[in-house]
Amino acid sequence: MSYCKEEGKDQVIFASKDDMVLPSKAIINLEEDEEDQQPGLILANGDINWDCPCLGGMATGPCGTEFRSAFSCFHYSQAEPKGSDCYDAFLTMQQCMGQYPELYPPAKEQVSEELDQLASASATEDDLAQIPGETPQLQTSEEEKS
Amino acid sequence: MDRVHTLCRRTFALQNLKRIVAQTQVSRTPVVVQARCMGGHHTPDHWKPIKQVVKEQKNHMDFMPVPEGSWQESFNKTQQKRNLMLAAGALCFGITYTICLYKTGCLELHAYTDFSQFKYKTNGSNEGAASSSSEEVQEDNSNNNAAATPDKGQGDAGESGAAGGIEPDLKDLPEVPQHAQYLLIGAGTATFGAFRAIKSKDPTAKILVIGEESVVPYMRPPLSKELWFNDNKEEVDSLQFKQWNGKKRSIFYEPKEFFADPRTLNTLEKGGIALLTGRKVVKVDASKKKVWLASGETLTYDKCLIATGGKPRNIPVLAKADPEVQKRTVLFRNVEDFKSLDRMTQASESIAIVGGGFLGSELACALGKRGKDTGLRVYQLFPEKGNMGRVLPEYLSKWTTRKVENEGVTVLPNHTVSGASFKDGKVVIATKEGGSVCVDGVVAAVGLEPNIELAQASGLEVDPVNGGYLVNAELEARRDLWVAGDAACFYDMKLGRRRVEHHDHAVVSGRLAGENMTGAAKPYWHQSMFWSDLGPEVGYEAIGIVDSSLPTVAVFAKSTEQDTPKAVVEKTGESLRSETENTASPAPLRTPPPSSPLDSEDYGKGIVFYLNKSKVVVGILLWNTFNKMSIARQVLKDGAKNEDLYEVAKLFDIYDTQSEQSAAGES
What we know:
Chain B: This is Apoptosis-inducing factor 1, mitochondrial isoform X1. Chain B: The chain crosses the membrane at residues 84-104. Chain B: Keywords: Apoptosis, FAD, Flavoprotein, Membrane, Mitochondrion, NAD, Oxidoreductase, Transit peptide, Transmembrane, Transmembrane helix. Chain B: Residues 64-110 form the Deltamethrin resistance protein prag01 domain. The complex is a heterodimer. Chain A is mainly alpha-helical. Chain A is built from six helices and two strands. In chain A, strands 1-2 form a two-stranded antiparallel ribbon. Chain A is elongated, with a radius of gyration of 23 Å. The two termini of chain A are 45 Å apart. The longest helix of chain B has 34 residues, at 71-104. Helix content of chain B is 37%, strand content 20%. In chain B, strands 1, 2, 5, 6, 7, 8, 20 and 21 form an eight-stranded mixed beta sheet that branches. By secondary structure, chain B is of the alpha/beta class. The interface between A and B is large, with 52 and 75 residues.
């Protein structure tokens, strides 16, 4: 049972579970506006959201431009399999990252393995997350996965 | 009569004429006229006849110059002279013009970056295999960044030496660049939000951050939260905190290596974010787009952000107390304060926290927990009736105080500090109400003073009510000058003019300012939130104006195991509560299966709506209710003016029937 009490200007309602699970009669739009939506990595129009917190400092760091061109290349790649035409872009990114071992801890074997994978064209978007030494949590949106 | 007169005149004229003729005949001198005028006087002896004068002065045709030699020859001579003068003039103009072009930047001489890029390409094509040339490429690139040692470059051909000649030497470059495309004053969270936003929109942006602290930008919430709960001393020393799920994370947003050297910032082709630590800006001239540093340097900017945050307040009683008391008082704000309080509490038997707000209450819980292990006695004094008394409604505030006491803290509400003295090696704090505590150390957590020192020197407007720089809805104070974070008093189109001192607000407003610095012209629209945890049983998140002086309507349910702050972080794997928001989802609008009745009137879990005079919801507190912030945001936007708030509370699904259902569906 729900009951109510007043403490001065403050009103307190203790609501029972039975009451709270009934459908709400409130008419409030719960759909978020475009401004309020915190978009994921891929925007509704298919573009990459470089402001996504999921990228960490990848897109803003000293190798940001290289990362962006590599990731863009992969994202928009029409090649079959996807990303097989991005070897150069990823190599450039890797070279840049090599200059900042503190920032991108060298997981060199892993990186070159990944590059080989890319070169041999067997990469999926999930692999991309492991290429940078820092392994940022790349979260693709639902649409992107499907 | 007339005739006589005429005759007389004629006679007179005739006589005159006769005389003149006679005189002329006598004198015969060249100065006839004078002689005539002078009448009958003699001419002076030295006077000469006109012919002689003409001869002496060579004033006749005999003395005209006569052309000699070749005309062509003399013409050539003159022309040669003039041509020389023309050439000299042209040369002079040419040099001046070139210098002008170069100085104004219209003309660019070979930049060393282009030069080595040229080399990079030839290297690649000559050697073919990309992997073998990669090392050299790197070497060249490091040369580019002017970070390589000179020896390295000399290994190459002479060309690299030539390139080195043009390249400015690192040592010669001033530590403070003369110009910054984006200048961010202050190196805290708002600046972090801003540089991320700028770099996302403008990938090759050149951003200069000037901060007073000696460290790279970091987040403050863990200083009063997680860092106190990490038992690993080494990690705490390196300012790493453990999230509830065991993941390690540093308070520093980015490592040192992330930031470029301010000296080379303007030479970086790809742009970068440079950090100048230990420097203070003392004046901004928004018209000239120029700033002055305390160390004397000046620099110009294209776009500037002031994100200077605030400094902790103190109460006069403590500020004017005995030096021994002052020595044992900590004003808590930054990393250094954390370290000194950490040291102090390890060596002390007792400590008093003055202040009952977010910081005071969080520190009380943190130290109380430490006290359970080390025997440290923790007192908390404040004038309000309960913890968070200015935020929570009274009943909830008092209830929270009981929870804080459970953490081992001796809470003294309704106590205003009136004196502090030093006796027998202890600080004695007396209150107006007649109470006193005897402790080894004191923490003053009595609020924040926005850093607006720049305002007066820079002619910037300060909000008289809320404090902070007065900015518009786009966070702009003047053209190309923005303010974000604690120091900004901005216009919120929904809730009016306000100033907010919270971590998430610094991120949100910093990001907004950053976007606007790249030309977005967006108003403040996305409401920031804040969160706090007081021990393992109390955790809350809030949005909008959460002020205990407003009337409130609250809907509570019974607390369960899953409703503690610990559980939510374990579930989402996020450390900062503001980052868990994306996973929120609205409650289902359908009838779930029946469940057990309410059996407690505890304030364990619920929603508190804060209303303004016109009964519009202006703030929402989610009490032990997590991942519902996006719903709260929509309710706040709507205002729920003519709604039954009991019905609105149903949207939040405080019994989590949705997750129960989905769990049932999965199994």
